[in-house]
Design a protein that fits this description.
5-stranded parallel sheet, Rossmann fold, single chain, alpha/beta, 2 domains
């Protein structure tokens, strides 16, 4: 591979300026076939690591995907996670909050969906929307009915950043590794993808007038992302800013990072205790004995049938001989 995942990791305490982070890099593959092979290799590794994760049942992995509209989140999840056992993976997409969601604290609806030990959880958008779109559109905050005495416009975003960091550190202390991806696309690339969705009838459902309206706030969103990423990228739950103008390159970067994150957990299959091993061997002996009995009984039955069939065949042949003799005698007459 022609890149290092650390190149896209945001160091804790650093101040992010997205204009300094590329939206496109030189492709780390020379052909479509090479890309497919590398992605397949990553998928195989992810599948094996997920099996280990499930067997050990001690850790969980939470992968969060954030991006501007048409940033490639859906395709990323589809292609990168295609080789993982669906039974060991949970995917949640968070749209506009419901009235029930709004009646709770802003972390409530996503906290319900956190992965249990042994599983990979994927958030397509997440609680970070609460410091992104909610920051761009103040009416969203108003709908949350936060008590006036607790609502401070000067500190609300810093307070929410702190709540998010506290949550992620809590998860880390309890065995859930969190890794966060911002799929970084340029405004021109977003325009091209919107045009593609309009021109392709099969993709018309993917675009709405609201998507175009949100482009007006591009700079505001960039500022909101910069502050959120700067404030919440930690050693326990790092942010990766992934150049995503080229979807194929982005998929290879993300899949490599996921492999590294799971590998770093040093997972192993559970050790079999001596008493458990003895129990399994006793069960094996019983199963092996049952198999021998069944095989012996089947052979005996086959032998009996073989004898009967031979006798029947002999009888048929004898009758044929007798009949032939009679027929021969008639011919002589």
């Amino acid at each position: 591979m022609a890149f290092k995942s650390s190149d896209y990791r945001v160091a804790q305490g650093s101040k992010v300026k997205l204009k300094d982070w590329p939206t496109k890099i030189k492709a780390p593959y020379k052909s479509k076939e090479e890309y497919q092979q590398v992605l397949f290799d990553h998928s195989e590794k992810l599948s094996n690591l997920q099996a280990l994760l499930s067997a050990s049942a001690s850790y969980a992995l939470l992968a969060i995907f954030q991006a501007m509209d048409a940033g490639g989140k859906d395709g990323m999840i589809k292609h990168v996670m295609s080789g993982v056992n669906p039974q060991g993976c949970q995917v949640f997409s968070f749209k506009a909050p419901s009235s029930t969601d709004l009646a709770h604290d802003f972390l409530w609806r996503t906290s319900k969906c956190l992965p249990e030990r042994g599983r990979i959880g994927i958030f397509n958008r997440s609680y970070y929307e609460e410091v992104l779109i909610a920051r761009i559109h103040p009416e969203i905050l108003q709908a949350q009915h936060i008590p006036e005495e607790l609502f401070d416009k000067k500190t609300i975003w810093k307070d929410r950043f702190r709540s998010m960091v506290d949550l992620e550190q809590h998860l880390s202390r309890n065995g859930t590794q969190t890794v966060k991806f911002f799929l970084h696309i340029s405004k021109s690339e977003q325009r091209d993808r919107f045009l593609s969705r309009i021109d392709d009838p099969k993709k018309n459902w993917k675009i709405t007038p609201a998507d175009i309206e949100e482009r007006k706030y591009w700079d505001d969103y960039m500022t909101a992302y910069e502050e959120a990423i700067s404030a919440t990228s930690t050693a326990e739950a790092p942010w990766y800013i992934v150049p995503a103008d080229d979807k194929l390159t982005a998929r290879l970067i993300v899949s490599e990072i996921l492999v590294e994150e799971l590998t770093a957990l040093n997972l192993t299959y559970p050790k079999t205790m001596k008493s458990r091993r003895e129990e399994l061997l006793a069960i094996r002996d019983k199963l092996a004995g049952t198999a021998k009995e069944a095989s012996s009984g089947q052979n005996g039955k086959n032998g009996k049938n073989g004898k009967d069939d031979t006798a029947k065949t002999t009888d048929v042949k004898s009758d044929d001989v007798k009949n032939d003799g009679k027929n021969s005698g008639k011919k002589k007459k």
